[in-house]
Amino acid sequence: MTLSACSGPSKISDDGFAVTRDEAVREVERYILEEYKGPALDLENARVKKNESKFILIVPPVDPRADSARFDVSQPYVKQVQYGSALTTFYFLVDVDELRVVDPELLYRLPEIDGGTRALGEKIVYPIIARKAGIEGTVVVRLVVSAEGLPTQVGIVKDIGATVGDEVVRATKLLHFRPGLDHKGPVDVEARLVVRFSMRRRY
Q1: For residue 69, what are the CA distances in angstroms to 66, 89, 118?
Q2: Mean pLDDT of the chain
Q3: pTM assigned to the model
């Protein structure tokens, strides 16, 4: 993951992934601050610094007498927090399967997510209530990919509670698709999305 210190898009990294400084700050807000035990932080003045192959978000404290906090934001869904000599790594993993189409034999071309499954994974936020309760598992949502490439009739087939299923539905509704085709052209296609949530912490 490549980051820049400005608020605009960074250059594309070798793996084709790009992110902005503001996105890095949002990642920290989403995944870390509820767990962070250090002094209050000034996110408005956060900056990104490259350290060898890693990208570190440096966040100054509100109290100028305290130390800055450093967050490793080099990898999606893996966040490291360092304050002084203490380092904690949080793994909030969201794994998205390929789109599963109902009755694929009826189609000339299957629908596809624009940007692939990564596009959905990057839109999903592991809900705070689920993380605090240690809830993990698999969510399945159903949807109809319209002939216009839009997700419609999105609903939960399998849930693990703690608003996790609702979060997958929310993120799915933000997607755009390359529509499926039959021999006459674009058609509505029923499909399923399977998303696995897991979490680990290492000190």
Answers
A1: 9, 14, 29
A2: 76
A3: 0.59
